[in-house]
Write a structure and sequence with these properties.
Helix content: 25-40%
Shape: globular
Number of helices: 10
CATH topology of the largest domain: Rossmann fold
Oligomer: single chain
Order of helices and strands: HEEHHHHEEHEHHHEHE
Number of strands: 7
CATH architecture of the largest domain: 3-Layer(aba) Sandwich
Radius of gyration: 17 Å
Amino acid sequence: MSWLALLNDQVVGGWARIRRRRRIRNLPPVTNVNIGSGVLVAPGWLNVDVSIASLFSSSPRPFLKFIYRIMPSSSAIKRDLAEQEFCELLRKHKFIHHDVRFGLPFPDASVDFLYSSHFLEHLYRVEVLALLQEARRVLKPTGIFRICVPDLEYAMTLWQKGVKDRALQYFFFDRDVSSFTRHRYLWDFESLREVLEKAGFSSVERCRFQVGQTPDLQVLDNRPDETLYVEAHP
């Protein structure tokens, strides 16, 4: 594991564990929350993430440039963003550094929309159930939770077509990858609907790429070929 991956796992993750009981106060009347956002963000959303970028998001621009430059060239951030874009994004959008395995730092029935893209697969199944129960708690009765995850059915189709190396990448990772980026469980629609219903959601609908009741999908939805999209209602 690289030293930066180790830093993110031990130091950044440890700081999130110390602050796990924190609660956000004085939320605006309409709140949209992006869980495990990384740098895939939309204007007006509150972005919750445990990455080193979210930890230092409010830092001065020279320090953000330093953070960007020490990231490995293979990182998703450097693949998607230039240095200036990285700094502008972190300074422009609101981030909360928090490990959602310890719950969501919001009051009951306070959130209108929850969004999560390619994040749940990084949690164990039992952690997903706990997070979904938290999501059910913080959503307003009229709220919606849009979940986007790698489609297990798609991965299995790749295997059946003989694209085995690509299929196996959904299950196995190089040793230098941070523990936060490893997959711990994969979902198809039936299994995801089952766990959502177990968490207390009354309605689960399969959606299409950038189609649904959640706002800003033109910005937030990505990776249409491999992704399962659902919207769940309390």
